[in-house]
Amino acid sequence: MQSITRSLGLNQEEIVRKQRELEELEQELAENELDLSTARRDLHLFENRYQQAVGCKYAELDRLKASVFEMATRIHPESKDFRSQAEAAREQAEQSAHNWEVHQEEAELELPEPSEELKKMFRDAAKKIHPDLTTDPEERERRHALMARLNQAYELGDVEQVQAILNDWEVINDWDQLTPGKQLSRLLKQIGQVRHRFNQIQAELEQLKSSEMFRLKDFVENSEKQGEDVLADMVSDVEEKIQNLRIRVKNLAIDCSEL
After folding, report:
1. Residue 74 exposure: Cα atoms within 13 Å on the Cβ side
2. pTM of the full structure
3. Could you give the CA distance from residue 145 to residue 152 in angstroms, rounded to a whole number?
């Protein structure tokens, strides 16, 4: 009997230690999720800005290039190279136009900078609803959906929506019905899931920050601190290409009129 009592006591001590460890990890996890969500939001806002300034110019250039290749295809219908280039150019032009239109609509939303109140609410919500804080498959699926709503609300700066998510949150607490052994087993699994999510977040952040658009974002922002306007320079460069292409087509048309 004494050995059983000792075993229960040791289990309880370990449970308390693991509960404290999990609480600390929950706080760290909420901070990491906030960092990831903020990085995604910042990149998304920069993409809107880039498309508004530069994307529309590339859409125009791609449209002109597609027209030139299509003209070449009509003149040389036997050329497979011209035909494939025309198809690729038209596809690129349509994609450029689509990207610009999508980001133009989103840019009009004028998303506010996240307030400290919103960041705190995000952390509080993430600590409660994070899917890696449960071991039940159905509950994890439900929490994944809530986290997706939470990230979207944060990106939009929607404090009311974040509060609604918190208000809608309900959790079935069966902790007291578990034996000490099962309590400890659940805690160990939760801790393992949280640590795994840390690795996922780190990998996602590294992938995000290694993307071409994120590197451009950093370069533009660092240049702006030095008083340089990189996006304006890019616009000028694309506009020059557009003008040169138009001149070459115009000159060709003039040459044809003189034949």
Report:
1. 5
2. 0.78
3. 11
